[in-house]
Amino acid sequence: MLDFIIILPLLVVGAGAIALMLLASMENLSEGSTALVSIGIFAFAFAVQLMVSVSGNVAPYETAFSGMLTASTFTKVAGLIILACGLFSCMIAQTYFTQNKFSSPEFYSLMMFAASGMLLLTMAAELITLFISLEIMSLAIYVLVGYDRSRIKRSEAVLKYLMLGAFAGAFFTMGAALIYGGAGSTRFALISKYLATNSFLESPVLVAGTLLVIVAFLFKVAAFPFHAWVVDVYDGAPLPVTGFMATGVKTAIFAVFANFIVLDNGMKGVWVDYLFYVAVFTMFAGNLIAIGQNNLKRMLAASGIVHSGYLIIALVAVGTENFTGGVIIFYLAAYAAATLGVFTALAYLGGTDERRDSFDDFKGLAKVRPYTAAAITIFMLSMAGIPPTAGFMGKFYIITDAIRADQMLLAVLGIVSSILSMWYYLRLVIMMYFKEPEESFEVSGVSLAPVGTMILAVSVFAIGFYPVFL
Amino acid sequence: MDQLLINPGPPLLSILIFLPLAGALFLLLVNNENFARYWTLAVTGIAALLSLPILTGFDRGSAQFQFVEKHAWIETLNINYVVGVDGISLLLLLMTTFIMPFCVLASWTYIKTRVQSFMICLLIMESAMVGVFVALDFVLFYILWEAMLIPMYLLIGIWGGPRKIYASIKFFLYTLAGSVLLLVGIIWLYITNNYSFFIPDMMWQHYSVTAQVLLFLAFFLAFAIKVPMFPFHTWLPAAHVEAPTAGSVILASILLKMGTYGFLRFALPMTPEATVMMMPYVLGLSIAGIIYGGFTALAQSDMKKLIAYSSVGHMGFVTLGIFVLNQQGIEGAILQMINHGVTTGALFLCVGMIYERTHSRELLSATGVGQYMPVFVTFLGFFSLSSFGFPGTNSFVGEFMILAGTFEYSIPLALAAIPGAVLAAAYMLRMLQKVVWGGTDNPDQSWLTDLNVREIVTLTPFLIFVFWIGLSPQHFLDLMQTSVTNLLDNFTAYSSQYMAAADLIVR
Amino acid sequence: MSAELVLSSVIFFGLAVIIPVIMLLTAVFGPRSGGVAKNDAYESGIKHVVGMADQKFSVKFYLLAILFLIFDIEAVFMYPWAVSLRELGMFGFLEMVVFILLLLTGLIYILKKGVLNWR
């Protein structure tokens, strides 16, 4: 029964997705109520996940579903973050679709399918399960990205994401096959056991296999040199989807990435040297791209690259013994709160067809809507890592970990990059606060997103001061 | 933990930190400008009054940290909420709480737009500044140290002058960049010291010389930018000139002191060997700052810029006093921090009052106001005299002690610093002469009104302190004496224990 | 050179020669029938694949083909399951029930959406 307890939240979301899909086909469900139902389902799943986490059942490798799944505090909290991301993304969607008319109830169903894929991904402890969950997630996201077919930008985004995502999937499959060839099993536990007795570097098949798997992960989190797609895709995707992709997908992939990389010390030792450079280049490439952006969504996409860089630092610094992943989870939570916060604000500020999307469009916001402007400032500062926000604490833990792991250079470069990132985060603050307003930022329709913005603004501080995730 | 003294009674320091924050949070809900003004004045006033029991309850005979509060915060990383004051931070703490109400008064009519937001920024600033001076946990310190930048950034950027965006970003990025390595240093200390962020734990430990030098450089970069010391000062004039009066006062009186406070609190006790090694360079930079600040101030036509550059010079004196590493020097330096806070703060207030009337900070447009604003020029005269260390005023005592300490350390160095004092007289008297009398071609100033009651109330306490410190400095020196003696004793003990080159150490 | 090697070389070369020759011969002698419909390019129910790349065309056939594939694969998946059903026992049976139910909900969705109505 333990097996089923750990996938209970997954079952809730999956069943919710199917139920919503069937209801949608009956065509007797209004858009607004679909949003509310999906928010409710996410909230319920969140509560279930919370109960599962509190009950403290830990299923290490080899046990759950004959070794296909693993459950630890790490995966459970990752699941919590994903469900929260889903919840807030639904809030964003609810508001977004009061101003953009291309929604249908299936949208929420797909969000839930994506979320269930992500949940499965965090728990995957076997390469085939991993692949299947990766595809459940990706397929749903592909559809969501291209949901609005009427605009050429969206089509471009979905085409890019689909093609490159398929490549990543292919890489992963090839890598998994090679690992199976080398270690004789697709289960993490058995691979780990194999590596404990055999040297990693002596088996070229394993080296090639892990390389391909890591490439697939790096692609999905938009790390250098596989980051080129992210800006266009995030820009082209509808706002709620961008928010969900930026946070949920990243959380899921990093969770499984961490589970994978800590399999064996020898294996991690080999890749750490490369991940070091990946982290450094990811941070700086992301910064350079972000500095040049004038569009808010594109800037956030590029800054997402930078955050991936930080998370890779955390991966580099993570120890294979007694892995808890608290630092990674904390950073992901802080990042998700801030990013979704900005997106909830954009959901109601963006206007029809995402009219306001460049920095200039937010001139003087602080005068017209002081609370929203303050909230956005908080999110920006959190992303930039300025105390006392959660973003700072996240960076602080990562840097502490890095120094503890003797990666002093990486720590210093990480901070330098965070200073660079101030440039583009502050630009928005300057626009909002130091310029005179040119419009009145009217918002049509009653919506949930402002509530989400305020909740997230508070939680940015709450996560920072009460780091329950650690 | 033997350095901590837990006083019974209410948690005064925490109240001082969180009261303004709570006031700011309440102000978020308010939509009435006048109420915001009175509310902020009340909150800062209460904070000032509440800091008095700390003064009276402070045990002058002890070098321990007093009024300590300790609560576990983030247990997995052994981060605690620890606050406490000693002789070094006490005066700075009191200065902070006492200057804030006057900043509110100075902004009463100066700030006309978005008053609530302005007051919220001021209150958050106060929380952070008080916190920085009393934090005994390095993470707490760092968080507050950085958190302070944001309200200051907004103060300059929203309510500042014409080039506010440039100034605010320069201020922000400069100071932020300075603290980059500080964080790395903090974490290195944490790991080296058995995973403790407790500041006294890190002091007087024997780190390797290389580590000490690297740590010192990390500290130096952060603190020297904040002071600002000579080559790192370029953000200061820009920020000062563009900031609103209250912002300038906070910058000059409190923010700059954090750099020098950092040197005393962290650099000296944690990296004594490196301090001795680096001492000559720092002293050189101090002298350079004194001379450079003086000459540049002499050439300014913008009053705020003039005072800003004079700050560079005055802060040069403070770092000089700290790094000669003797009792008189350090005591003089701490006293001079207070003096500079009082005098320069008051001078910025004066300039702000002129600016409110003429809407210009140009020296030429403010010439010859003495005839129409007698009360104002009286205040200005006293503060100017204080600024260049006229005997009987506060700065005289501070500069005298610093120079005495410097003479004790090295006569050439002291002689090199003397021109700074002369230059200070030159630029201050130049400004005073122009403002009070001007020349034959003064603009028509007859429409100017003299100070009103609120403005007089704002300036008078500063004047009281100018003379109180100037005529009876012993009251203030008593407060810090034990702590400074303890600091130097520890330093000497450390030197005799660990330093091979005994001839290098403090004389 | 061993006998096997000689033999395999002969066969290899034989194939390399014989196959092209046969192809050539059929091209020359074989019966042929032509016509417009025969020469037309044909791709999955779409008649005019040559032309503008962004022209609109019916997707009905695609949808049907994909749906067919899904249920086809389902059937393929059921063969090995049926063979080993005894070893899998009750658990295996329930697994398949879940699988089929999931597909069934998909089918219901499709029916309700009217995908199978050929309009």
TrEMBL record, chain A:
Name of the protein in its database record: NADH-quinone oxidoreductase subunit N
Which organism encodes this protein?
Answer: Desulfopila aestuarii DSM 18488
| Keywords assigned by UniProt, alphabetized | Cell membrane, Membrane, NAD, Quinone, Translocase, Transmembrane, Transmembrane helix, Transport, Ubiquinone
Gene Ontology biological process: ATP synthesis coupled electron transport
Query: What biological function has been recorded for the protein in this entry?
Result: NDH-1 shuttles electrons from NADH, via FMN and iron-sulfur (Fe-S) centers, to quinones in the respiratory chain. The immediate electron acceptor for the enzyme in this species is believed to be ubiquinone. Couples the redox reaction to proton translocation (for every two electrons transferred, four hydrogen ions are translocated across the cytoplasmic membrane), and thus conserves the redox energy in a proton gradient.
Q: Which gene encodes it?
A: nuoN
What quaternary structure, including any partners, is listed in this protein's UniProt entry? NDH-1 is composed of 14 different subunits. Subunits NuoA, H, J, K, L, M, N constitute the membrane sector of the complex.
Against InterPro entries, the record matches this protein to:
NADH-Q_OxRdtase_suN/2, ND/Mrp_TM
Membrane topology is: Multi-pass membrane protein
TrEMBL record, chain B:
Query: Which residues does the UniProt record annotate as the domain NADH:quinone oxidoreductase/Mrp antiporter transmembrane?
Result: 135-417
User: Record keywords: Transmembrane helix included?
Assistant: yes
Record's keyword terms, sorted: Membrane, NAD, Translocase, Transmembrane, Transmembrane helix
Q: Where is the NADH:ubiquinone oxidoreductase chain 4 N-terminal domain?
A: 66-129
Which compartments does it reside in?
A: Endomembrane system; Membrane
For this record, an example GO cellular component is: endomembrane system
Transmembrane regions: 12-31, 38-58, 88-111, 118-136, 142-159, 171-191, 203-225, 246-266, 278-299, 306-325, 337-355, 367-389, 409-430, 451-471
Q: One GO molecular function term?
A: NADH dehydrogenase activity
User: What NCBIfam families is this protein classified in?
Assistant: NDH_I_M (TIGR01972), PRK05846.1-3 (NF004499)
Question: In which family does this protein belong, per the annotation?
Answer: Belongs to the complex I subunit 4 family.
Name assigned to this protein: NADH dehydrogenase subunit M
From TrEMBL, chain C:
Superkingdom of this entry's organism?
Answer: Bacteria
Tell me where it resides. Cell membrane; Membrane
- What is the protein name stated in its UniProt record? NADH-quinone oxidoreductase subunit A
> Does the keyword field hold Acetylation?
no
* Species of origin: Desulfopila aestuarii DSM 18488
Top EC group: translocase
Q: Looking at the Swiss-Prot or TrEMBL record, what is one Pfam family this protein matches?
A: Oxidored_q4
Q: What is its EC number?
A: 7.1.1.-
Q: Which gene encodes it?
A: nuoA
Subunit structure, as described in the record: NDH-1 is composed of 14 different subunits. Subunits NuoA, H, J, K, L, M, N constitute the membrane sector of the complex.
Keyword Transmembrane recorded: yes
Q: Which UniProt keywords apply?
A: Cell membrane, Membrane, NAD, Quinone, Translocase, Transmembrane, Transmembrane helix, Transport, Ubiquinone
Stated membrane topology is: Multi-pass membrane protein
Q: Which GO terms describe its cellular component?
A: NADH dehydrogenase complex; plasma membrane
- What reaction is this protein's catalytic activity? a quinone + NADH + 5 H(+)(in) = a quinol + NAD(+) + 4 H(+)(out)
Q: What does this protein do?
A: NDH-1 shuttles electrons from NADH, via FMN and iron-sulfur (Fe-S) centers, to quinones in the respiratory chain. The immediate electron acceptor for the enzyme in this species is believed to be ubiquinone. Couples the redox reaction to proton translocation (for every two electrons transferred, four hydrogen ions are translocated across the cytoplasmic membrane), and thus conserves the redox energy in a proton gradient.
